[in-house]
Amino acid sequence: MDQFLNTFLNWDYIWQVFPDLLKTGLVNTLILAITSFVIGTALAVPLAIMGLSTKRWLRWPARVYTDIFRGLPAILTILVIGQGLGTLARPIVGTSPYPLGILALSLIAAAYIGEIFRSGIQSVEKGQLEASRALGMSYSRAMLLVVIPQGIRRVLPALVNQFISVVKDTPLVYFLGFATDQRELFRIGQDLTANTGNQSPLVAAGIVYLVITVPLTHLVNFIDKRLQTGRKVQAAPDDGDLVAGGKVAS
Asked: Could you tell me which of 206, 115, 111, 122 has the C-alpha nearest to residue 158?
């Protein structure tokens, strides 16, 4: 038992790594996750609209993109983009793999978020679009102002879940070889573990990940509960209620 505690819960090593975890690892993890999620969301909206298009030349590229980036392991995508495009992108991003790591995470996120948006848009009743068209709106305007906002609102819990997935995917950029000041949570914990042979720094990194993801998980449950409550519609009174209320003449 003492050996287990010393290997995984050595507080000397945990306190030693915590300053770097919070000052460098946490900052870089949040930068990678938030930037990738924002870029991925921006790419996902047109991707979802293309996937719903009746035109094959729009629908098929979106389908192929989604199938490829959802079908490949995330680590393979990161390595192909980070290392395969490194030479080509060097005039733009320089020698730092940081932007390429963000690009890879963004492209992966876009495929998943695009499917989330597509399912949300498809869940909106067709009558919403028909009513908007009846009011004189064009198809694109009705989709932009009426259908898409409702679809996005319905998939908010899934979007938060996807952000959690992006946070948990950020350690994979470790394989691109970031500089010391670019390390995320896992890399910092892994480096000290490699130097000391003790697993406690990785446990400390895991604790910080939980501090990020657990509140987000409860936020998902809260949003989902609020949306479920908001969708409850009061049942229309039946004929018996109308008679009992004296609203139907005998």
From this structure: 115
